[in-house]
Amino acid sequence: AQSVSQHNHHVILSEAASLELGCNYSYGGTVNLFWYVQYPGQHLQLLLKYFSGDPLVKGIKGFEAEFIKSKFSFNLRKPSVQWSDTAEYFCAVTSFSGGYNKLIFGAGTRLAVHP
Amino acid sequence: NAGVTQTPKFQVLKTGQSMTLQCAQDMNHNSMYWYRQDPGMGLRLIYYSASEGTTDKGEVPNGYNVSRLNKREFSLRLESAAPSQTSVYFCASSGNLAIAKNIQYFGAGTRLSVL
Questions:
Q1: How many interchain CB pairs under 8 A, A with B?
Q2: B72: which of B3, B5, B11, B34 is 20 to 30 A away, CA to CA?
Q3: Chain A: residue nearest B110 by CA?
Q4: Backbone angles phi, psi at B19, to 5 degrees
């Protein structure tokens, strides 16, 4: 079965530190990849997505992610985090199953940024 | 433009009680979904509706029923709540789940506690 693994469940950083959140998926076919973010008390928002083309994808708020097909990875990065980046981050992958594109989520990474 | 609206935001139930979670979207989307979010497990699909008039089981449908009332609304019902159903419930919608580049948009969630 397809699955998504996020390596870190909790990450604590100081402001201005660099961020990299790992995401690996298990699916051999064509995939679409997503990172969603959930700020405290808010709904999930799409941070960025990869469908095809340039494997380095830029999203909102200075985030970017790189799709490395050979490693089945889609890691999220930000050069310098801010306190407002405190949130939970979910990696997700679509796989075509049962006639529809199913969205499979990782367990999430809770990021806390301290001033 | 409200996007995906869920009600209520919070609910406490006693074991055996029933309730319905409401979801409405104003994006003219065809497909709608219900997920539950549990710590360390990411989001898991309960039910989905590919289009108005259709509903199908997702990964964890037991104990739930759904109704796609019209194109805008998709409700989730717990007939006899159990403590194992304590969770955060998210509704989502998307243009068409049969299309590869299918992006889901989420509501703010309903935090449900079953005592």
A1: 56
A2: B11
A3: A43
A4: -165, 160
| Nearest-CA distance B87 → chain A (Å) | 14
Element (H, E) at A97: strand A87-97
Chain A neighbors of B51, CB-CB under 8 A: none
**8 Å CB contact between B29 and B19:** no
Whole-number Cα distances in Å, B110 to A32, A76, B24 = 27, 27, 13
A60 touches chain B (CB under 8 A): no
The residue to which tokens 């003219």 are assigned: B28
Phi, psi angle pair for B97, to nearest 5°: -70, -10
Tally Cβ neighbours within 10 Å of residue B14.
Answer: 9
Q: One digit per residue, pLDDT tens: chain A, 115 residues?
A: 678 999 889 999 999 999 999 999 987 677 889 999 999 888 889 999 999 899 999 999 999 999 999 999 999 999 999 999 999 999 999 877 666 778 889 999 999 999 8
- Distance between A28 CA and the closest CA of chain B, angstroms: 16
Question: Per residue in B63-105, pLDDT tens?
Answer: 999 999 899 999 999 999 999 999 999 999 998 877 767 889 9
Give the phi and the psi of residue A71 in degrees, each rounded to 5. Answer: -105, 0
